[in-house]
Each structure stands twice: as C-alpha cells, then as structure tokens.
Amino acid sequence: MPLSALTPGQKGVITAIRTSGPLRRRLLDMGLVRGEIVYVERVAPLGDPVEYTVKGSHLSLRRKDAADIIVEIAEAERAHEP
Fold first, then answer.
1. 3-73 has which CATH code?
2. How far is CA 25 from CA 19, 21, 36, 72, 76, in A?
3. pTM
C-alpha cells in the first residue's frame, strides 16, 4: 500500500520506492529506505503535506510524493519514543 494511504498514528515498513531521478535521491537521503519504519505524525489542515517521523527525524512530504513509497502496515506501537 502507498505511504500516502496511512493515517495519523499508523506506521509502516518501507518495502519499495517507486520513483526515480532527483526525487528518489532526495527520499533516500532523508532516510526513506527499504526496511525503515515510518510513523505518520499529522496531516496539514488542507490535507497536504503530511508530517512523518523516520529514524527520529521529522519530515513533511506531499501526498503525491508519498504515494511513490510502498509500505506494509507495522504493529500498532509508535515508530519512535517521545
């Protein structure tokens, strides 16, 4: 399922990144790599962008870009400690 389909409070494990070029490089540089856990923090008031936590860092992605990241839903626990 695409990362963009997750809702706040859910987390997923990245299984694939289906984009190329500069966007792919940018996502990889931000730590969005296969096997990494991504936690959905919150959605902006108008629905875009969405804030995620990965490797303890917060980042915001447009839903369009998050749709290129494929995840499997992880267990209900948080991806990071507060």
1. 2.30.30.90
2. 9, 6, 16, 21, 29
3. 0.84
